[in-house]
Amino acid sequence: MKIFCTGASGYIGGSVAAHLIAAGHQVTGLVRSPEKAEAVRARGIEPVMGTLDDVEILAEAARAADIVVNAASADHKGAVVALLDALAGSGKPFIHTSGSSIVGTRAKGERTDAIFDEDTPITPSPARAARVALNEFILAHRDKDFRPVIICPSLIYGAGIGANPHSVQVPLLIRMAKKRGNAAHAGPGENVWSNVHIDDLVTLYALAVEKAPAGSFYYAENGEHSMREACVAINRMLGFAGPPAAMSMGEAAAEWSEGTTEDTMASNSRVRAKRARQLGWQPEARGLIEEIVQGCYRE
């Protein structure tokens, strides 16, 4: 099959593209520069030069493909509209990437007990209201004679493929630990995030391409941990003695920005991938703590 992937030089898109190429598919990927074009071509991806604002380039690439995977941005409505319009009436799958911060609460590092599966109603924070609205807009196209599907990963960890082979949260914590000589979390660090290994996540994309019905929405997770637990593991990995430190919200915001601190590093995002498992998804990669202590983050 011919697959067009946005974000093909990035962590999720690059990893998904590599998995689909290994499965025998042909992948074209949107890239913004000659340097990134050269990098993706070396991995077997045929580059398409352009940006998410280039409506005609996106539409032409989507029409030429059998499957479209949007992994460049969870929030760029213009690109989504261009791709959806190009696919209407085609019967083709459109796999869009969201993120589980849509259920996040600004908890200042405190734990909350709310857990969401795909059937749980969401009242998003103001920072994520537009993303939830975009998800609903995409799924509303289920009756346009093509197959819109959303995959909503939780905290992603593990070594992927792309210009930046890691996701956001764990590297931020590791860099902070190296800077301070001790791991540190925002507030008490009891806030909990579900998580998923990149190796397991890419298999869900492939399964969604093959089997997901139009209008499907899937969380992706295989466990959960508090930020404090992640920091304890980082101290073990780096050989730092003693417990991790608690930063004030002001200290954390000075390091990570207010938005990243409030909506990611100090929030809760607890989800369950009920529908993904019903689809046949079977995550098998090692867990977050083991990956931190013994895996790719030691390099």
Stretches where pLDDT falls below 50 for ≥5 residues? Answer: none
Helix content: 25-40%
SSE order: EHEHEHEHEHEEHEEHEEHEHHHH
**Mean pLDDT across all residues, rounded?**
97
Per DSSP, what share of the residues sits in E-state strands of 2 or more residues?
Answer: 15-25%
* Shape type: globular
Question: How is the biggest beta sheet arranged?
Answer: 7 strands, parallel
Strand order of the largest sheet: 3-2-1-4-5-6-10
Structural class: alpha/beta
CA(first)-CA(last) distance: 36 Å
State the total count of DSSP E strands: 12
**Number of continuous helical runs:** 12
Rg, Cα atoms, Å: 19 Å
Molecular structure report:
It is built from twelve helices and twelve strands. The chain has helices spanning 11-22, 34-42, 55-64, 77-87, 129-139, 169-180, 198-211, 227-238, 249-256, 258-265, 274-278, 288-294; strands at residues 2-6, 26-31, 46-49, 67-70, 93-97, 147-153, 155-157, 184-186, 192-197, 216-220, 224-226, 245-247. Strands 3-2-1-4-5-6-10 form a seven-stranded parallel β-sheet, with helices on both faces. Strand 5 (93-97), helix 5 and strand 6 (147-153) form a beta-alpha-beta unit. The chain starts with a strand and ends in a 5-residue tail after the last helix. The model has no long low-confidence stretch (mean pLDDT 97).
